[in-house]
Amino acid sequence: TSKPMVLFLGPWSVGKSSMINYLLGLDNTPYQLYTGAEPTTSEFTVIMHGPKLKTIEGIVMAADSARSFSPLEKFGQNFLEKLIGIEVPHKLLERVTFVDTPGIIENRKQQERGYPFNDVCQWFIDRADLIFVVFDPTKLDVGLELEMLFRQLKGRESQIRIILNKADSLATQELMRVYGALFWSLAPLINVTEPPRVYVSSFWPHEYHPDTHKDLFLKEEISLLEDLNQVIENRMENKIAFIRQHAIRVRIHALLVDRYLQTYKDKMTFFSDGELVFRDIVEDPDRFFIFKSILAKTNVSKFDLPNREAYKDFFGINPITSFKLLSQQCSYMGGCFLEKIEKAITRELPDLLGSIGLGKKP
């Protein structure tokens, strides 16, 4: 039942907060987000609908289960002090929630922020329906923190929109060069056949500079609003598609854990040291064809397989002996877990999507 979430990411001072002020018409009102040339936003700011203007502390937001931000408590009190909610009585916010993030400052280490910045970004990325990555002509260089961010966006390419903001500060020829340079910087980071949509304009209430492509900028602005509207309109379809995507990941994870467990059981003898046997498997899963066997047996794409290294950490926290084989997760009345998830992926969720397409209420 939650509203679609639009996330604003990007380097500091590229106009993320100004863009939100502009989209909501908050400039010169008591509601406007603070903006400036220096890094101004140090908080994660959630802008949502409310009957009157109200600021909500992060600690209160996390404690209120009705707001769906309670999982953020796991990032600690330091983070909750950097989380703020603003309720604004605005029509657009009845249909969507905006999240403004602290600008990326490349020479700052995560530790200096006092909370796990990348993990928090990941939490919001996983829940966002639309992700605006904002750049301006002066900040096109891609450093480590931005590179890390694009790694976190992997698999979410369809939700990413690149914004080249403050475009009316450049002459035509310069703008073309900057546009090319932006693609050049981002090409190694976004490995998809179809690049994300790039919007080129100046998203703030001031008049465009004279002698610039006013018509183009206005058309780009309208396209962006249509895009935003489309996401709001299709939120139910997007949600079902996302659940299906998540189900596929859960299924792959279950199959992999099952395969690790089966290999462990096969290698164990009466005299074996369980810990050494399993360390051997985790250190070199390819020797035991763990990942390859999943591809051979099931309808799984090699591009969907998770990172092997992640399983070292995973089994470091969850000992292999705490798992049961998938074949043992079946009951006469309840059926098998794996069959249920297969059915959801192949039949139930696609049928649900189809029923929305036919105009039925799911």
Key words describing this protein structure:
Rossmann fold; 362 residues; 2 domains; 10 strands; eight-stranded mixed β-sheet; alpha/beta
Secondary-structure blueprint of this entry?
Elements: E1 5-9, H1 16-23, E2 44-49, E3 54-57, H2 58-63, H3 77-80, E4 83-88, E5 97-100, H4 110-113, H5 117-127, E6 130-135, H6 144-152, E7 160-164, H7 172-186, E8 197-200, H8 214-233, H9 235-267, H10 274-283, H11 290-297, H12 308-317, E9 330-331, E10 335-336, H13 337-357
Parallel strand pairs: 1-5, 1-6, 2-4, 6-7, 7-8
Antiparallel strand pairs: 2-5, 3-4, 9-10
Helix pairs in contact: 9-10, 9-11, 9-13
Describe the structure.
- With 362 residues, the protein is of the alpha/beta class.
- The protein folds into 2 domains: 5-212, 3-Layer(aba) Sandwich (Rossmann fold), CATH 3.40.50; 243-358, Topoisomerase, domain 3 (Orthogonal Bundle).
- The chain is 44% helix and 12% strand.
- It is built from 13 helices and 10 strands.
- The strands form 2 sheets. The chain has an 8-stranded mixed β-sheet, sandwiched between helices.
- Strand 7, helix 7 (172-186) and strand 8 (197-200) form a beta-alpha-beta unit.
- Helix 9 packs across helix 10, helix 9 (235-267) packs across helix 11 (290-297) and helix 9 (235-267) packs antiparallel against helix 13 (337-357).
- The mean pLDDT is 85.
